[in-house]
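Duplicate of earlier report; Aspartate beta-hydroxylase input re-posted below.
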Amino acid sequence: MERGQKEEEGGGGGGDAGGGPKYSWFTWFVVLALLGVWSSLAVVYFDIVDYDSVIGKLTAYDTDGDGDFDVEDAKVLLGLKEAGRAAVRDSPEETTAPQVLKSEETSEPVAETPELQENEPTSPEPPTAETVSESDLRPARDDEAAVPLPPAVEDDFVPDDPRGSVHPYEDEANTIDTTGVLVEEPPPQESVVEAGQYLASSKLSQEAEPGVEAEKQPEPEPEPEPEPQTETPKEAESVPESDGTAEKQAEEKLKEKAKKKKPKLFNKFDKTIKAEIDAAEKLRKKGKVEEALRAFETLVQKYPQSPRARYGKAQAEDDMAEKMRSNDMLQRAINTYREAAELPDVTPDLLKATLKRRAERQQFLGRMRGSLATLEKLVQLFPDDISLKNDLGVAHLLLGDNKGAKKVYEEVLAVSPGNGFAKVHYGFILKSENKIAESIPYLREGLESGEPGTDDGRFYFHLGDALQRVGDNSAYDWYELGHKRGHFASVWQRSLYNVNGLKAQPWWTPKETGYTDLVKTLERNWKTIRDEALAMMDQNTGVFIPEEENLREKGEWGQYTLWQQGRKVGNACEGVPKTCSLLEKYPEATGCKRGQIKFSVMQPGTHVWPHTGPTNCRLRMHLGLVIPKQGCKIRCTNQTREWEEGKVLIFDDSFEHEVWQDADSYRLIFIVDVWHPELTQYQRQTLSPI
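Output:
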């Protein structure tokens, strides 16, 4: 049995006394040969390989011009033999001939050979901040290949722009490089963008999202001081530009230039812990706010003298405050920003970013004086930064300190006379001082500059208003431009605090408003309302306060207010108790947080400039109480009407209106503002007061 087992295990049977293999080498050879034959037959029969295609590709390496790829061609590729010039073939049958190019210098046909290509890079190198120009963003023509986009680059964190409205962690890490060009991985095998399309960052094209091709758009025109670019000025000028794009392009290019200088946020010590900081920052960028905050808190405990870690903690707290909608958490962030700025060895860029963000968040919380102090410190630390001085001027304006703001902007314009941001704000201040003619050139030139921060509806509003007051009809050109830029609903309707989609018309009937009961109550009781108002006028107690909004060209205009912003004004109703009692039943009026209820008396010789109210959320009722027979009229848009005693006029004061009082005695009316009838109950409860 033992021998039998040995023979079975040894696989004898080959006749070899030494116990050779079960099958001979010849048998295996035959089997493999048969497999090869059957495989070849299968390939040919089922057409698995397109031999014509393969051979056609190989002939691109045909260096000796014999129409195929052979041993001689391989020798040339390996550098063992010199290539001979290929003959240019004219026969249409020779479809495998090498591609023919023309030399730009000699215009002679030159065969494209591997030798001509061996010095070219196999993949394009990413452009640097210095080499990327506007030509990199323009659409590729049919006869040229698009400039390939650079690959993603792991970059240091760039601080959030305090003026930006984008949430700090909405942009994922590695989506935008320091040049402002959208970063994408180039698609495999294809790098050509079809003509009429272009890819840009979302800041350059609001419609373009990362990874999405934008719709056909005109080429951006070069700025007065363009970056070096490959396209010629003629090409750039030949493309028409849609209204409103010039200012946006100027703004975005300034941002791009700022991005090109990468801020230095890491001091020497922070660089040694950069990997830990980057890991925490990545969590914040991805919106994992709680994890990011814990990570930065750990870093601050571990490295209490690290400015960058402290700054990251402040940003994470800032993000948490927004997520939680917590003022307490936001105050924590403001305090941490201060701590980061006060640490030793803070880099100038980090110090500036920290204090700017702190000032912005202080303003958000309503800490205007604290924000002003922070900005004053910034200006002391960075006296050459004009943008910081401009921000300081805005801080003064937010405090109602026009005098302080005016001084700041005068300093800015002394060193930078063409600064558009300073000009529009300085013009705004001059107009508030009733220096109408003097304000116009500053407002106009500031808007024309197209600089960031100038494209604001208030500046179009005040420039047009100033031009109207000096009798310049170009006011309506500016109103039209403001409308095209999206600041005004129309040339006539120029209110700035609006709810979209509300019915808009200058004059209304009681039935259209749905407030017929209120109108009937006012008209039925108009004499009672009139008598109470006259009694207050006769007492001469000073309850009629002169109009203070600088709306009069001339004359006298007094107002006695009962309700304002949805609340009673002090004890004003004590003088007219019946009138107030009548109105208590109508919350559409007494609860209108964006309106007033008041008496208005206007003396002869008064003219009220064309103006608009602040919001489209209300309608205004005028009840005639004492109306002279002639000389009193009101215009709303291009329709002029007159008051009647005991009758209610209803108009939308967000449309331009104007008043004349050319009678020989005073005019007295009762003004009742009501919510726009299309506002929902929720909107009426949640809209902010005006």
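The chain has a mean pLDDT of 76.

Merging into the original ticket.
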